Amino acid sequence: MAVDPSMLPTVVTRMRGDWAVGVDSLGKLCECLEEYHFPKRYQLVKAQTRCRHAYFVEKGLTRSFWLVDGEEITTSFSTEGGIVFSMDELYYDRQSEEFVETMEPVKTFRISIENPMATYIILGIVAVIAIGGGYYFKVVKKKKEEFLDEDDEEEDEEEYDDDEENEDNEDAFFED
Question: Got the DSSP string for 51-68?
Fold first, then answer.
């Protein structure tokens, strides 16, 4: 079912602000879209799965995060007019490593990332905001790796501290 561009004015305004989208291209994009509404705390993208879609956020707010040792680590927010999808799926053809969750009820327009037109459009949009992508790969991904490394170092230090305590207890036991 084709979507009329007038149904997503926020997305169109933001898209035209970031990318020179012509009327024909916008029409072709809208032919691929389906309108979806989701409640607060709905997971549009889930780690260890493939959602196979990207979502243009017309109304509402989403949060992207990783789950690291049971703790949610927020990586970004997407506001009205933005697009959310799994970078892992689109760029690397693998399951997502992150979650994208709605922070409030949202109105979205969904497009399959398996649709060649969709992939072309999404990659075009992403190319325009490459600074954000560069930020993701240079800063966010690096921070995740550093965070994981810090956790490993803390665990190593805890094990070392436990070993020292055990040695002290053994020394005290044998001194008695």
Answer: --EEEEEEES-EEEEEEE
For residue 122, pLDDT over 50 is answered with: yes
- The kind and range of the H/E element at 143 are helix 141-175
> Is residue 64 a contact partner of residue 87, using CB atoms and an 8 Å limit?
no
Residue found under tokens 């799965």 = 49
Sheet with strand 71-78: strands edge to edge: 43-45, 99-102, 62-68, 71-78
Do the Cβ atoms of 66 and 47 come closer than 8 Å?
yes
Q: Dihedral sign for Cα 73, 79, 59, 88, please.
A: negative
pLDDT of residue 131 exceeding 50, the answer is no
The pTM of this model reads: 0.70
Across all residues in the chain, what is the average pLDDT? 78
What lies within 8 Å, CB to CB, of 91 at 6+ separation is none
Q: How crowded is the C-beta side of 98, counted as CA atoms within 13 Å?
A: 22
Token pair belonging to 27: 């029409």
15 contacts: CB under 8 Å, gap ≥ 6: 21, 26, 81, 125
Radius of gyration of the chain (CA): 22
Q: What gap in Å lies between CA 139 and CA 93, rounded to an integer?
A: 22
